[in-house]
């Protein structure tokens, strides 16, 4: 019996590898002596990571008129923090390759996660937020706890999914009853183990309950709305079969007019196929 979400992470070998690259990039970015060449070298040390990063900066995600063919140029054009966050995003999928597909198709899982990330980035752009890539990463990570649950306790995961299919209940609510906590809590514990920013930890923890976010309510509200959009548009699934309810207060807190929803959906529809293919493509 697992008493708390972090218990599921014990013995999970995939935890350390992601934090290493993120920590190295952070150290360089925060060093006054660091240069763009230093950032480029860290990324170039991993050919697969280099390929993934260059694919995404040359995709419809950005729509640059000319091809970006080096990591250093990507850093110059896109920005240091943005490249760090894109590196994180493109590394996540590669980290969790080989996960069993008997509960949820991983392609469908990542399609939903990427759709949430793209939608969040679009909403953040309308709000003129700084470094909108952090919203993309948070969107990709919002359901990451489900991978841990499906991997570590597959029998209980199957029980929750089957019950929801027959009863029409929301999956995260059933998780709390059957397991004792939901995938959002597990995701928060995983991000904490990766030493990711507190903002991302809170967003993941409260994306189904955005009013519970105390320190980063706007970021959490954006991911909440983006998640609902991805569900409503039926862009993949992480296991949930129904569209969770929209928290009206979260929508109000974002401060955007309803008129942006139609262009947001149009942009999401245009970008998703290319971005998902770019990220999910083998390095």
Shape: globular
Instruction: Write down the overall mean pLDDT.
Output: 88
SS element count, helices: 15
pLDDT < 50 runs, ≥5 residues: none
Annotated CATH architecture: Orthogonal Bundle
Corresponding CATH superfamily? Hypothetical protein af1432
Radius of gyration: 18 Å
**The CATH top-level class label:** Mainly Alpha
Q: Helicity range of the residues?
A: 55-70%
Strand content: under 5%
Number of structurally distinct domains: 1
State the CATH topology.
Answer: Hypothetical protein af1432
SSE series = HHHHHHHHHHHHHHH
Alpha-carbon distance between the termini? Answer: 38 Å
Largest pleated sheet = none
> What is the structural class?
mainly alpha
Protein model, in words:
- The chain is mainly α and 283 residues long.
- The protein has one domain: Orthogonal Bundle (Hypothetical protein af1432), CATH 1.10.3210.
- The chain contains 15 helices and no strands.
- It has helices at residues 15-29, 36-44, 47-57, 71-78, 80-95, 106-126, 133-141, 144-152, 154-167, 171-178, 183-193, 198-205, 217-232, 248-254, 261-280.
- The mean pLDDT is 88.
List keywords for this structure.
globular, 64% helix, single chain, Hypothetical protein af1432, mainly alpha, 0% strand, 283 residues
Record the SSE blueprint:
Layout: H1 15-29, H2 36-44, H3 47-57, H4 71-78, H5 80-95, H6 106-126, H7 133-141, H8 144-152, H9 154-167, H10 171-178, H11 183-193, H12 198-205, H13 217-232, H14 248-254, H15 261-280
Helix pairs in contact: 1-2, 1-5, 2-4, 3-5, 5-7, 6-7, 6-13, 6-15, 8-9, 8-11, 9-10, 11-12, 12-13, 13-14
